[in-house]
Amino acid sequence: MSYAKVLCVGLVGVTGHIVEVEADLAPGLPTVLLSGLPDTALNEARDRVRAAIVNSGQRWPNRRITVNLLPATLPKFGSAFDLAIAAALLAGSGELPLAPLDRVAVLGELGLDGAVRPVRGVLPMVAAAVRAGISRVVVPLDNAAEAAVVPGVRVRAVDTLHRLVAFIRDGAPLLDPPSGQPPAAHPGPDLADVAGQGFARRALEVAAAGGHHLALLGPPGAGKTMLAERLPSILPELDDAAALEVTALHSIAGLLPPDGRLLRRPPFQAPHHTATVASLVGGGTGLARPGSVSLAHRGVLFLDEAPEYTRGALEALRQPLESGRIVLTRARGGTEYPAQVQLVIAANPCPCAKPSGDISCECTPLARRRYLGRLSGPLLDRIDVQVTLNPLTAAELMGAGQTVESSTVVAERVGKARAAATARWAAGGWRINAEVPGPQLRRPRWRLPADDTRTLRRLLDSGTLSARGFDRVIRVAWTIADLDGRDRPDSGDVDEATQLRTGSMA
């Protein structure tokens, strides 16, 4: 036999595609030709595979070798094809039978010594194989736990090329995925740690219940960062579908924990204010990789000291905040990543940022306007809840006479409110109030009475509130009603939602 074919999987963004690795061996000058739109890492596979085969005790076929990756029009990236290429070459040279690899996807990178190294993106690759009707996969041992979380697939692992050859030739057993219970999750920051700031705590709870974007403005030490870091602790755990999406993104980025378990907690991303546009929304040469906005998918993206970010980085977030996805176009093709995030921004009110607040502020009105003007109107218009925090008093800091709720207590209310919203909007496929389109809220079935929205209409007519802002206030009003256990918002809910939008208690 001079021809062989082994199945593998390639990734474009988070979407996997079955790739047929063909090997043809013909008489002629010994060389290896690789076709099928490979990138640089894949082009170098010819040297890795040759060294791995020889160092695994197998004979290298000194013939003219052509390796083709089908479909040839699909760009191929990375080193996950190494193991499949080696198996196809050995089968094509007559060293191995092909039957044991029939309808089996083979993934893995080869070291020069024949060791099989882990690769990124195994989870979405295995999920793509299952969707294509493939129920058996061979993966690197270090990726086996990650692959095993995909339902409907039988996972076998290898640590060396020699083990794979022994399996194909002699039926020797492969390795099973590591078993055992995942380690207990360490408790995160608790909302009970936050002193005072009752109005901001209420805003945080409303934002969590409805999935609303949140802006926290106030002097240093008021608790902005503490509140933002505790938002994930009051969010519900991810369901199976969402957990697979989030875990797949972190797999592509190479950020999964060693045990490869599903990520059940909503992710929290807090990039530094020096972050570039590419690091926020995704980028890189060849095929763009996910950025912070995608790694925070189904979770929280926190921008501390938001005015210190570059204008371009902040403006790049506008489109994904609206659509819930990010499309990155490069010379070798476009990539789409999900980006349904809950944005939280924190900012000082002025450049001097005195801890005592505006009382001792040394900034001129122009300097204050310029500082906060770095947050553009279109970006702020997409933030549903905007609150101003006041400096803490000694009594608040010491907790005198206060009963502070923990994250567990607040999370229970948030979970009930989200369940009510999911049941209400189930027909439209929306999970939380923040996802409901504005036209849906204005239909007769869901439209609020004119008396309940009189103040809100006046703000819209005067230009104080945009049409987008009007819809966002209505969404927040629905969330407040859900938290209070009522079927529909009333005028009080609309007034509170308006207050949360304007950012102060007055």
From TrEMBL:
Q: What stretches pass through the bilayer?
A: none
User: Region Disordered: which residues?
Assistant: 487-506
* Top-level division of the source organism's lineage: Bacteria
Instruction: Tell me one Pfam family matched here.
Output: Mg_chelatase
AAA+ ATPase domain location:
210-393
Q: Which SUPFAM superfamilies match?
A: P-loop containing nucleoside triphosphate hydrolases (SSF52540), Ribosomal protein S5 domain 2-like (SSF54211)
- Which InterPro entries does the entry mention? AAA+_ATPase, CHLI-like, Mg_chelat-rel, Mg_chelat-rel_C, Mg_chelatse_chII-like_cat_dom, P-loop_NTPase, Ribosomal_Su5_D2-typ_SF, Ribsml_uS5_D2-typ_fold_subgr
Record-stated family: Belongs to the Mg-chelatase subunits D/I family. ComM subfamily.
Query: What is the name attached to this protein's record?
Result: YifB family Mg chelatase-like AAA ATPase
Q: Source species, please?
A: Plantactinospora solaniradicis
